[in-house]
Specification:
Length: 424
């Protein structure tokens, strides 16, 4: 340990602002005390968190390395160059822009680069597993662009590829988008590339959910197929809460101009440094083992829940997440989420394809295995987790004082004590 000051000083925070220090501590307690199964969350490393909590947060650096609108950028230029080079190497990409503040910001920049207001986009519908920023009417993307949506096939519950091709030929969108937030199966990128080429469209992949599995070489990469790939850096990838874009050389200038100055101002240099740390972590053998384990765990959890009648849509998963239909056990998504919460299990209600319920009730739950895998759990633990979820959902209650909630919470506590989050 060095006595040099890097930026973070919990003692100083605690003495000045015990209320916020208390929130930090109780959130750590929440992470350590329960099961974290939100498919879009993870636990980034102390090295990533250290870069995030650093003095790089202070620096204005509008522009790009070597081309800034502020003085004093030599040090942050080093951080951004490292992040860019590591990101390009990790994904074999021609170009990387590491400035997007989030996944939604990255997606805004892709719209800015390729579409004019009123232009047509073809994307997956939100109720079938897409994302708000993929043309939902309540998002800028649905208000400013003409979004046409494909969904999943009623029988397979996987992407309806025939519909994608039919809608592409009928509407001739400028951009075709693949990806979403509740897609358990691998996406056929070669198929999308062929359809995009046939109509002269840009092929964009929003890889936010699964990019960590690509980084760990556990699933095929969209990078060789897509014109542009946007992603968040905090889901399976396990970096800071942020975003990034990779693209082909042909689109480098359009993407860079769309991120800055079109959509964003000053980049968050602390976050960019943290992304650089994360990309270095992703290039290790340990990370590859983690990515493979995330998938093995997700498959085991999906099967375990299915064995309890909590049906996995598409019959299972190829990725880090599974989506489950609760109709066979006669429980709604909102009730399942509340019952799990009371039992120390954090997950989210989720619409399933062709859901008869409104989105705020939902007939499903979505579970992901990034956090529990980061904590070191394996397939044997996933069977236990499936049993605990099933008990909470089918026999539990939203009241934490209920007998079943208390019992399951005790078993959750025993399990996570063996696999502590952020062990000292
Ligand atoms: N909100 C994220 C998710 O949970 O999938 C996507 O932005």
């Amino acid at each position: 340990m060095s006595d040099t000051f890097y930026g973070s000083d919990f003692d100083a925070l605690e003495s000045f602002d015990p209320e916020i220090a208390g929130v930090l501590l109780s959130e750590l307690g929440r992470l350590r005390g329960g099961l974290q199964l939100i498919a879009s969350e993870n636990m980034s490393s102390p090295a990533v968190l250290t870069a995030l909590g650093s003095t790089l947060s202070n620096k204005y650096a509008e522009g790009y390395p070597g081309r800034r609108y502020y003085g004093g950028c030599a040090e942050v230029d080093k951080a951004e160059n490292l992040a860019i080079e590591r990101c390009k190497a990790l994904f074999g990409a021609d170009h990387a822009n590491v400035q997007p503040h989030s996944g939604a910001s990255a997606n805004q920049a892709v719209y800015g680069a390729f579409l004019q207001p009123g232009d047509t986009l073809l994307a997956m519908s939100l109720p079938h597993g897409g994302h708000l920023t993929h043309g939902s009417k309540v998002s800028f993307s649905g208000k400013w662009f003409n979004a046409v949506h494909y969904g999943v096939d009623k029988d397979t519950e996987d992407i309806d590829y025939e519909q994608v091709e039919r809608l592409a030929k009928e509407h001739r969108p400028k951009v075709i988008l693949a990806g979403g937030s509740a897609i358990p199966r691998l996406i056929d990128f070669a198929f999308f590339r062929r359809v995009a080429d046939e109509i002269g469209a840009i092929f964009w992949v929003d890889a936010a959910h699964f990019i960590g599995l690509v980084a760990g070489q556990a699933i095929p990469s969209p990078v060789p197929y897509a014109d542009v790939v946007s992603f968040t850096t905090h889901k399976v990838l396990r970096g800071p809460r942020s975003g990034a874009i990779v693209c082909t050389e042909a689109h480098r200038a359009a993407i860079d101009k769309a991120v800055f100055p079109m959509m964003q101002g000053g980049p968050q240099m602390h976050s960019i440094a943290a992304k650089a740390v994360n990309f270095k972590e992703c290039a290790t053998a340990e990370y590859q083992a983690y990515a493979a384990q995330v998938i093995a765990n997700a498959a085991a959890l999906a099967k375990g829940l299915g064995d309890h009648g909590i049906r996995p849509t598409t019959g299972g998963t190829d990725t880090h997440l599974s989506l489950h239909d609760l109709q066979p056990v006669l429980v709604t998504g909102v009730d399942a989420e509340a019952r799990c919460d009371a039992a120390g299990i954090t997950l989210n209600k989720n619409a399933i394809p062709f859901d008869p319920q409104k989105p705020n009730i939902a007939s499903g739950i979505r579970v992901g295995t990034a956090c529990v895998t980061t904590q070191g759990m394996g397939i044997a633990e996933m069977q236990v987790v499936a049993d605990l979820i099933a008990t909470a959902v089918t026999k539990g209650d939203a009241d934490p004082g209920h007998r079943v909630s208390t019992e399951v919470r005790g078993q959750v506590s025993d399990l996570v004590r063996r696999f502590p989050a952020y062990p000292r």
